[in-house]
């Protein structure tokens, strides 16, 4: 136990100190998460590279074991496949997350790297080989082991990413998962797994001191994807040492909250016709705040309590027989059902409106797709505005403005396009979407509704963000041409 405590403390100190350093440097260099979207909960820019401290805190005491000539160090080094699988895969996922935090990356690159890492881990022996059956013998997967392993690894990595929506939530959820794996490993006498969990617990706790509400730093994708990776990989190892009656049920329960939230998000977006990888404010933590009128901190504490319940269920499944496991699962299903009803996920009164929302979103996605295609084919700013202008009718806005501007030799030059249409007489709701190219501001899209709405629909905001990105990409090329050949370009002013 002394070794585990030392590992925990070393990881805690490294994470604590590095989180402070990263926070100050990120603020100085402008590496912050802007509060520029309706789905953002925070109201001021927050540094987003705290995951670097988590990664360093986790690896620091483990790397020291390679340098220490001791029985524990020798035991750790003897598990070469486990060690190199976690080190290599963890470093790759961390680099992917860091790149995404600094520059942004698409879903295709993320999934490609995650799948490649999952395949490598499969070859290192991290595998889902049995599916639990509390009412009978476990079901061997055979040739389906690889796709189930990929689904588990990629799913958990992204589930932790999705749950990272409130201060301290993702770190706290991961901490409960770490605690579950540590207790199970300790009960089985698995020293190496206990070391890994002690290191991860210290790294998480050192970061949470700065991340709990009100947070002064976020973990970003670097931290959330790395935590998801380590927990997914370790869970595969712990599940292979479980009784066959509960194979994979224990890790599923240990990570019950992020898995449940991810499944709900996939079902919700599929039913409502939204892009599968779009962001919204309908996650469990968002609904706790809106439906139950909980504060930011109270919502997180409630979810900590739910994670504690999942942890107790996971531990109970590990030590229970088949009948007891079935009773635990039924009890947990009742708790989840009550929670889903309280949060409005099972509200049948809204079922009639779902079809209309789905049709509207599918039409909106089609319009945005055609509009973006037209924008990419434009050859001038006037043509670009002609491509964007139909957006006013599609979204039924009273006024649509596109303003583009840039600085050249100390002077601000630009162009403004505007269209107005009769669309209500209520007090206006004005929304401005920034047009940026690689974080360089080029202008904005400004829309005004007079139909009495109090806020913009999230699906419409998402559509506008996609249009703004395409406009920025095309407008940047026009402005670059103006810089290169100023004599051939005539500036337009309002």
TrEMBL record:
The keyword Transferase applies. It is found in: Cell membrane. Keywords: Cell membrane, Membrane, Transferase, Transmembrane, Transmembrane helix. GO terms for molecular function: transferase activity. It is a multi-pass membrane protein. Pfam families: Glycos_transf_4. The keyword NAD does not apply. InterPro entries: Glycosyl_transferase_4 (IPR000715), PNAcMuramoyl-5peptid_Trfase_CS (IPR018480). Its EC number is 2.7.8.-. It comes from the Bacteria. The chain crosses the membrane at residues 46-69, 81-99, 111-130, 142-163, 169-187, 194-212, 245-267, 299-317, 323-340. This is MraY family glycosyltransferase.
